[in-house]
Amino acid sequence: MDSTPAAPNEASARHRIVLTLSCPDRPGIVHAVTGALLEADANIAESQQYDSPDTGTFFMRVAVNAAATREEVEAAVRPVADRFGMHLQVWDADTPLRALVMCSKDGRTLNDLLFQQRTGSLPVQIPVVVSNHLDLQPLASFYGVPFIHVPLSTDPASRNSKAAAEDRLRELIREYEIDVVVLARYMQILSDELCRDLEGMAINIHHSFLPSFKGARPYHQAHERGVKIIGATAHYVTADLDEGPIIAQSVHPVTHAQTAEDFVERGRDVEGATLVQAVRWHAEHRVLLDGHRTVVFS
Predict the structure, then answer these.
(1) How confident is the model at residue 7, as a pLDDT?
(2) Taking a C-beta distance cutoff of 8 angstroms, is the pair 231, 208 a contact?
(3) Distance between CA atoms of residues 68 and 16, nearest Å
(4) Minimum mean pLDDT range among 41-55, 70-84, 249-263
(5) What is the DSSP letter of 244?
(6) pLDDT of residue 26
(7) One-letter-per-residue 3-state SS of 145-160
(8) Alpha-carbon distance values, 176 to 87, 100, 266, 284 (Å)
(9) Dihedral sign for Cα atoms in the order 27, 30, 31, 36
């Protein structure tokens, strides 16, 4: 009887790794990166690049299958990154990002995120939902996700003041080892300081394509003006309210025959789908910042 140990499954021994990089554009970048990956025995499964004519910056995303670990692949590419002055990031694609979801009372978008996570179509892990109200606690419980109530008071001296609530959020981000914060119809404005703390790691959904209809009841304003499309924009959070770098946008046609309530219903659908798409692209490391814009390797 042959007692030779069975060879390990080669496919199972390999790691799925994603690299993203940006640097001033110059000749030889792709050749140098792919050469370093070859030396690391990393097989390229997907590669996309873009040279921004506005900033002169070169962007690249590479997905590889490698026998080497994430750390070993990064070590192999690091000399190239140093030579070209790259901003290099390397991730294990099989390790999902940990997302903290913030919400208020509207549960449609939260439900979209939790449902997509449960079905496996959204590559994130949602370990906690945070809200300034208790309304959506049953929804989080239905999906088996811890729900933490962080109330807000307009009194700055209150133990539930905005500053205290934001300090509590920072604690939760550390406690749950959060990679990305998702604002799923969280109806509070974050402070400039918190926006800076969360730069590049917080995603918000906004009812854009209604740029003339700011303030309360935007869908009703749009209905009164007879608009023909409604839409949504998912963007990174910045101190400039609803003006952060855009990740994803969607629109839906409407007609004069629809009511304002119809607009709201269809608008919520668009918002949920758009936010899920933005979170998916972010979690797959497809979004790179180019000044106030984004490069999205979809």
Answers:
(1) 47
(2) yes
(3) 10
(4) 249-263
(5) S
(6) 96
(7) CCEEECCCECCCCCCC
(8) 27, 8, 34, 20
(9) positive
Mean pLDDT of the region 185-209: 90
Please name every residue paired with 145 in a beta bridge, in sequence order, or none if there are none. none
Residue matched to tokens 């307009």: 154
Does pLDDT of 254 surpass 60?
Answer: yes
**Active-site choice (242, 262, 269, 290):** 242
pTM given for the model? 0.88
Residues in contact with 285: Cβ distance below 8 Å, sequence separation at least 6, in sequence order? 18, 20, 61, 89, 91, 93
pLDDT for residue 213? 64
- Over residues 141-169, the mean pLDDT reads 90
Q: Is the pLDDT of residue 6 over 90?
A: no
Q: How far apart are the first and last CA of the chain?
A: 52
CA 254 to CA 266: how far, in whole Å?
A: 9
Which amino acid makes up residue 86?
M
On average, the pLDDT of the chain sits at 90
Render the burial of 97-120: b for 16+ CB within 10 Å, e for the rest: bbbbbbbbebbbbbbbbbebbeee
Residue 242 a catalytic site member: yes
Which contacts (CB < 8 Å, 24+ apart) does range 154-162 have?
162/188, 162/191
- Report the b/e string of 209-232 with b at 16+ CB within 10 A: bbeebeeeebbebbbeeebeebbb
The candidate with the shortest Cα–Cα distance to 32, out of 91, 77, 96, is 77
Rounded Cα distance between 241 and 253, Å, is 26
Q: Could you tell me whether strands 147-149 and 180-183 are parallel, antiparallel, or unpaired per DSSP bridges? A: unpaired
